[in-house]
Amino acid sequence: MGTKERTTERKAFKDWFDRQAAHQLAAQIAGVWPRFNSNRFVKLATNNLKGLEFHGRVQQFANALQATLPKDIPRALDILTRSLPTELPDTEAVTDGWLQWPVGQFIADHGVPYFEESMRAMTELTTRFSSEFAIRPFLLERPKETYEYIYSITSHPNAHVRRWCSEGTRPRLPWGRRLPADPASSWPILEALKDDPEIYVRKSVANHSNDLSKEYPDLVVARCRAWQKGATPERTWIIRHALRSLIKAGHPEAMRLLGFGDGKGLRATLRIKPRAVNVGDAVTLNAAIRNTGKTVQRLVVDYLVHFARPSGKPSRKVFKWTVAEVEPGGVLRIEKRHPLRHTTIRTLYPGRHRIEVQVNGARLVAALFELSSDSYDK
Predict the structure, then answer these.
(1) Which among 4, 10, 278, 319 is most buried, taking Cβ atoms within 10 Å?
(2) Widest distance between CA atoms in the chain
(3) Rounded to whole angstroms, how far apart are CA atoms 62 and 66?
(4) Which region among 18-27, 189-198, 254-263 has the lowest average model confidence (pLDDT)?
């Protein structure tokens, strides 16, 4: 492994925005507006950086832009747009586009009253990095105009712009400000993009649809049923991924739409080894699912872990396992290793944990194991 690779691995995420980045962004802007006060920008952007996490640093850089660019916002937007680097050549391009994140934050903070100028700026920005976070205030404060603009560019020649149309309007965009789920506004956009030639765009259509399914499950199932007519393999992939949360939740209509039965005639056993385990280790799940019916059964198998919590009320998470077909009288034998480590989104606590096997939405069998705190600090 070379030095460059090692440096990249060791760099903390928040450290994308450091003094070097401030100088780079200042040089970028001064390149199109020589009056830009680079020294003041760098001083403001890097004040007490060590005390700030990632989003705090982005906001501080954006505040520094506001303090050093013209007070006339349309003029400031024009300068920022002209300062942007060259467009990404394709959807697989690797770029240091993180540097443009404060530009998007500036637009989000100050651009809402200047709709046309902001839309132009975000359309240009998303061909270099992304405007999916910057557009959220516009969707909340000026939804009709914003959805109409986004729909009008769904046939844009640039794939990054087309993806932005779906990704920027996702109700539950990771890291983004949550939006009210609005199927009536989303459907025209998703319809226009569902057969996009770029998988980069189609993935976003699937994720957006999956977001909508959290609040409008029946509407999403109905839309996917309509999409099945004359579906290409690519669109079929979108349908599967759009319904993934409903499949995990055992939604009957979603199950039927993807060809899974109601689970009648299935019998299951589950063994967990070891039955006592420390935090930092793993348990191995062995399940056997028997089809006692008279027809082939297409199965989607998940498992639910009920995690012990200090309150005494367990929390539950569904994990994917496998998809398979079982002949009449046949048995599906499967094994899964489940690690028990702390993560950024879940702290593990000692106590009794329960695992259930879910097949086609029906919970067939459960078993217990004990998690010990012996290795809690590993």
Answers:
(1) 278
(2) 80
(3) 6
(4) 254-263
Q: 320: number of CA atoms within 13 Å, CB side?
A: 9
**By C-alpha distance, which of 271, 270, 252 is closest to 261?**
252
Counting the structural domains of the chain, the total is 2
pLDDT tens digits, one per residue of 335-362? 999 999 998 788 999 999 999 999 998 9
Is the pLDDT reported for residue 95 higher than 70?
no
Return the axis-axis angle of helices 183-193 and 217-228, rounded to nearest 10°. 20
Residue 253 shares a structural domain with residue 270: no
Interval 160-202: pLDDT, tens: 999 999 999 999 999 899 999 999 999 999 999 999 999 999 9
**Residue 218: helix, strand or coil by DSSP?**
helix
* Cα 296 off chain centre by: 35
Same domain? For 131 and 240 the reply is: yes
**279 within domain boundaries:** yes
- Supply the CATH number for residue 318's domain: 2.60.40.10
Which of 257, 287, 308 is a domain's end point?
Answer: 257
DSSP code for 228: H
Indicate the SS3 state at residue 93.
coil
